[in-house]
Amino acid sequence: SIIDRQRDDVRIYAISILFYCITPLVLLLSVFSGSIKSTQIYYILLAAGAVQNLGAAFSIMLNNKILVRIIRVDIYGKLFGFDGIIISIAGVLLSLIVIRLIAVLGFPKGFILLFAISLVMYVLSAVLILQFSLLYNNENNNSTDFLSPFSIIKNMLMKPEVRMMILPNILRGFASGGVYYIMAMGIKRMDLPPIYSSYAVTASTLGIIAGNIFFAYAIDKLKSGKLCFIGGLICAAAMLGISYIDSKYVFIILNFFVMLGQTQIDQGVPTGIYRNLPYDMLGSITGIRMLLMSLGMAISTPIIGYALNLTDAFYIMLVVGVLQIFGSALFWKAFRQ
User: Cα dist. 154→51, 279, 294, 295, 297 in Å?
Assistant: First the structure.
């Protein structure tokens, strides 16, 4: 029945959250086992990460499918913004706690405690998810829940608004590949000391917080598509600046603006999908867009890394910036109401 299918969604969502326990569990075991070589741990972590990401994919799809049915569409954008603010601030506070614990307890006690805490928190998350009380809209419960995956994909591709999302999500993945090399460009071009990586992370976190505040404030005024385009412009300009300007202080500031712009896209895309695309296929659409974005990132990351060794970073980031702006413009077009 429909009710049983809804309960199954919640159960599978809770189980998929438990996949996040794999990496901290492997790390915890590696600390206790002194006989495992560092190279062996590396390959074990790669395998564990692959399995964990498989479960994470299910959790992302089901998270979107479930939340969109218990939260009103008209408040989803603001909720995304405030959710991002809380998560970012909590991340900063937890980072300070982690630093303090490691400083006080040292290795391995500090790491054992942190890995154990992360395991407990993931298990607790799964238990709380099982308590979800879904408020489904009956008029939407007669659609794709019982169709095969191939039928769902076929039905999705028949809709022009879904086809419009294919290219921008691939381009989003291409552009995201360039973001991973920001710190590498700083080290290579300006010979930055290791401490600047922590400065860059701090600036990036502040950019995420500011980006979420702006998104929550502007979503109802500017709409998700325009915010994606504004974010693309900001992010592209900041990455281009990082590849050209030699000031260490400007490098830190531009990290702030990269994430300020990136946050508009990260929050604007799912909000735009929920507000504009078919309600009954949101879980499947989320899976497809994550697949396309991951594909774009998997293609662009090694290409950008190889190209950075051959030519000036400015030209690489210029191409990445153009792709970022073009993809953001396509999101604006797809979400325009």
Answer: 28, 16, 21, 20, 25
Q: Closest Cα partner for 330 from 178, 156, 167, 173?
A: 167
Give CA angle at 131 (126, 136), nearest 5°: 115
The SS3 assignment for 336 reads coil
Q: What residues have CB less than 8 Å from 196, skipping those under 6 apart?
A: 186, 248, 251, 252
Number of Cβ within a 10 Å radius of residue 282: 21
Per-residue pLDDT of the chain (337 residues; tens, 9 = 90+): 566 777 788 888 888 889 888 888 888 877 777 666 667 777 888 888 888 887 777 787 777 777 767 777 677 778 778 888 888 888 778 777 877 887 788 777 887 888 888 889 899 998 988 877 555 444 444 444 445 555 666 666 777 777 888 899 999 999 988 888 888 888 777 888 767 777 888 888 899 999 999 999 999 889 999 999 999 999 999 999 999 888 889 999 999 999 999 999 999 998 888 877 766 666 677 777 877 888 888 899 889 988 988 888 899 999 999 999 999 999 999 887 5
Residues 115 and 113: their CA atoms lie apart, in Å, by 6
Q: Angle of helix 282-308 relative to helix 248-276, nearest 10 degrees?
A: 150
Contact between residue 177 and residue 297 where contact means Cβ atoms under 8 Å apart: yes
Pull the structure tokens for residue 253.
């500031």
In one-letter notation, the amino acid at residue 171 is L
DSSP 144: S
Residue 288's CB is within 10 A of a number of other CB atoms, namely 20
Tokens of 92: 């900063």
Please choose, from the candidates 84, 332, 78, 330, the residue with its C-alpha nearest in 3D space to the C-alpha of residue 224: 332
Q: 211 and 247 in contact (C-beta within 8 Å)?
A: no
CA dist 295 to 91, 169, 221, 264, 319, Å? 28, 9, 33, 21, 18
| 313 to 109, 184, 296: CA distances (angstroms) | 42, 10, 20
